Amino acid sequence: MSWASRFRLLQYTKASLWIVPLLGLVLGVLLAEWAVSVDATEWLPAGWRYSASTASGVLTAIVGAMIALLGFVVTIGVLVVQQATGTLSPRYMRLWYRDRLQKAVLATFTGTFSFSFALLRSIESDSVPDLGVTMAGSAVSVSLLLLLVYLNRFTHNLRPVAIAGLVERMGEAVLVRGEAAVLGAAPRAGDPVPPAGGPVTYVRSEHGGVIQAFHPERLTALAARHDCLLVVTRLVGDYVPPGAVVVEVHGGSPAPAARRVTGLIAFGSERTIEQDPAFALRVLVDIAVRALSPAVNDPTTAVQVLHRIEAFLHTVGRTDLRNRYVLADRDGTPRLVVQGRDWEDYLQLAVTEIREYGTSSVQVCRRLRALLEGLLTTLPPGPLPAVRTELTLLREAVGREYPDPARRTRAHTPDPQGIGARHRRG
């Protein structure tokens, strides 16, 4: 199995809602067998012993309760999907499916169900799994506690501002970790890519799809083994049609097989966050734009999402971003060139659509201006020209939307709260 296939399998496992509950189901059966074998030693105290009718009634009630709770949790999941796709962003579902608490709750319910059901077959008039019945009761207590935690978490964390904070933190973590890994293997920023001798071979995608990730270390090692330079022509997150060029192979004796190269690049049906921090920003912008739609008309939510976008942009602005990265082997010879997003890419993604859809809201205009002016005061000189360009575009958009001088002046006033104060100290 290639690395790309393993990556897709891992993504499926992370997003699956049935694999972990299935493991809980199997574990419940195994624990039931263990409990029955321990009961045979007759070491339990008298207070832990039950009659056959009591044990049967308790276990039967637990089996029915677990089935009902499973249906309840599934119903909540359906409601979450409806709310997330209707008021947030369908892209967020890619992240919600990975929630570990939800999988733990389902696994606990299925495990308790299989544990209790497996114990029922061992009950006889003169043989009762006393330890198992006590363990089943304890499992019910744990299940109820997890259910309460689950309800509390999703009641509070399904608010757009909470989801925006979660997505922003995930994006920052991927950005910092990914950039550090790539920069650690790259030559100095000013080093050009030396021309590679020999012919150029083009590696094309077989089935197409969205580039979800690639393995830079193995691609670099593959290029070193064949003494060539690999140039990845697409960004992580790009859609590649079938037959399009994905990698250019410069030199090589012989050139690596196309299947070996594409086996280190994972394609899928949609973007994922593993190597694509811009995907987190895409989700944040989607939530803000959805809040600005006429059907929702909630500019305050858009302003709250802009808080998280501003925090993300401050992290991006302090990162050494490049529009391409050159990775070298152990001898310092460039072996892999990958495309990257620079500061302008992130900034335009963060503010362009919100500006276009939110100019009619004075609150959004003021918050956007405060965001851009805040970037001017805290970022190093390199990213500042792009910020000034966005300020100019915002000023022009406000001028077109508000012909009245008084309203235009109010919309031009920066305010971190959207509309929170008439005057801000400079």
Structure commentary:
The protein is of the alpha+beta class and 426 residues long. The chain has 15 helices and eight strands. Strands 1-5-3-8-7 form a five-stranded mixed sheet. A hairpin with a 5-residue loop joins strand 7 and strand 8 (334-339).
Note the topology.
Blueprint: H1 3-15, H2 19-39, H3 52-88, H4 93-96, H5 100-120, H6 130-157, H7 160-184, E1 200-204, E2 209-214, H8 216-225, E3 228-232, E4 239-240, E5 245-251, H9 258-262, E6 265-268, H10 277-292, H11 299-317, E7 324-328, E8 334-339, H12 343-358, H13 362-378, H14 384-401, H15 405-412
Parallel strand pairs: 3-8
Antiparallel strand pairs: 1-5, 2-4, 2-6, 3-5, 7-8
Helix pairs in contact: 2-5, 2-6, 3-5, 3-6, 5-6, 7-10, 7-11, 10-11, 10-12, 11-12, 11-13, 12-13, 12-14, 13-14, 13-15
Briefly summarize what is shown.
This protein is of the alpha+beta class and 426 residues long. It has helices at 3-15, 19-39, 52-88, 93-96, 100-120, 130-157, 160-184, 216-225, 258-262, 277-292, 299-317, 343-358, 362-378, 384-401, 405-412; strands at 200-204, 209-214, 228-232, 239-240, 245-251, 265-268, 324-328, 334-339. The longest helix is centred in the N-terminal third of the chain and has 37 residues, at 52-88.
Please provide the count of β strands.
8
Shape: flat
Beta-strand content estimate: 5-15%
As a whole number of angstroms, the C-alpha radius of gyration is: 28 Å
Q: Biggest sheet, in brief? A: 5 strands, mixed
Name the descriptors:
426 residues, alpha+beta, 5-stranded mixed β-sheet, 3-stranded antiparallel β-sheet, 15 helices, 61% helix, flat
